[in-house]
Amino acid sequence: MKKLFIRIRSLLKLFLLLSTAILIIISIFAIVFKPIYSVTLNGEHIGYCKDKVKLQNRINDYMENGDESTYNKNLAFISIDNMPSYKMCLLKRGITTNDDEIFKEIVKDGVSYYKYYAIVDDDDEKVYVSTFEKAEKVIKELKNKESNNIKDLSIIEKYETKLKKFTNVDKAVSKLYERKPIVRVASSSSYSSRGSVATGRHMSSSKINLGISLSRPISGRISSRFGAMSRIRSGAHTGLDISAPYGTRIKAAAAGRVVFAGYKGAYGNMIAIDHGKGVMTYYAHCSSLKASVGTYVSQGTVIAAVGSTGNSTGNHLHLEVRVNGVAYNPQNYLY
Ligand SMILES: [Zn+2]
Questions:
Q1: How far is the CA of 239 from the centre of ligand 1 (A)?
Q2: pTM here?
Q3: Percentage of the chain modeled with pLDDT above 70
Q4: Ligand 1 midpoint to CA 264 (Å)
Q5: Mind listing the domains of the chain with CATH numbers?
Q6: What span, in angstroms and rounded, lies between the C-alpha atoms of 64 and 211?
Q7: Could you tell me the distance, in angstroms and rounded to a whole number, from the CA of residue 121 to the centre of ligand 1?
Q8: What DSSP state is assigned to residue 184?
Q9: What confidence score (pLDDT) does residue 260 get?
Q10: What's the 16 CA to ligand 1 centre distance in angstroms?
């Protein structure tokens, strides 16, 4: 019995000794031979990298900040479609790593996006400036000078792959300034046949208190949300699209006075209702209009019918909520 015990003990000792030795050998290997990574891009092997974390950080930093060639040029970010994949290989012999070349290979197809601001006059991009502050300054100065087009001017943020030529504040002001017509237009109580509305691209995603509650003009499926980008539009979506069959009756979202009823370019046939305190709702792409400028409508009054007039690819209602000309997200109040 005692013999057996001694035997087991010595076996255990041997086992411990062996495993310690193996552990030490493994650690020495790990210290001497650091793991390296085989790098593939689009399924193609492009080299071996010594430090995967460092390389990936360098790529990420480049995408965020660019390099000397993009410095101070309104770079927003650099988009790289294809990211490398790394595969660890241990103890490969006779391999040379080329992190620098791998980096160059990966970033060479990067696309730079620049961020800047356009001042638009009724959807026409007139001048480009490098910062929002400059754009605001231009608008402010034009306001002070009572430029005739001030209601149609708005600022849009641009993310483009091509950098535009920037205009400085003074030049932008003189380029955009429009003298007020000498002949005074009729008093505000008489509207023209179509009325006038601001349709610039100045928009805000914040949820502000409108002071009134809106009801659904139609029921239907939402086909494009506020802020969405699309190929048929020049910028972000200033309204909410609700698709519905041709001729569906559109009801006023709240009581107010019709201040526009007619055809307005990309909007097609459109109704605009002024609810007071700067709050307006627009109903665009209509097939027919059933309210005229100057009339008061109550909430739920049928004002138009769904269609696809203007810049539209199918029957839908384009609904906008504007406060002092700035477009807000209708879904903060409806649907
Ligand atoms: Zn729309």
A1: 5
A2: 0.45
A3: 90
A4: 14
A5: 36-109 (no CATH), 115-176 (no CATH), 203-332 (2.70.70.10)
A6: 41
A7: 20
A8: P
A9: 93
A10: 75
